[in-house]
Amino acid sequence: MGKSHRPERMGEEIRKILSDLLMRGQLKDPGFSGSMISVNAADVTNDGSYAYVYITALDFGAAGGVSPERKKEILAAFDRSKGHIRTELGKRIKARHVPELVFRFDESLDYGAKMDAILDKIEIPADDYDYGLPEEKAAKSFEDEDYFDD
User: In the chain, how many domains are there?
Assistant: First the structure.
């Protein structure tokens, strides 16, 4: 029996609906104000009982992302709004059961930035090895060839 794509489709639909709710300002919890929040992904379990929703946030006016305290506030705001979100999902998704939502911060962007910073610190010496072909086997230029018959 093949793998079902239903969890993937449902996760993408949850992501779209939740993004729409945030964009239209339909989630009115004060914990959402002052930050730009985006929904990166929603992974639904195979049985459809849980959906892990991965979010990122940027604070308006802050240079380096959000603080850990702010992340806790945003996650608490999502937990307080969970009932309203599930109600909206139930109206828009054609399914018997709306999965239980678990909100998490997507740390992949922070991890990527950390890896970039580490790679920028590494100094790689210039490579002196000549990877070219030997001269007798080097490709000839267009002018060296006699392509046209006179």
Answer: 1
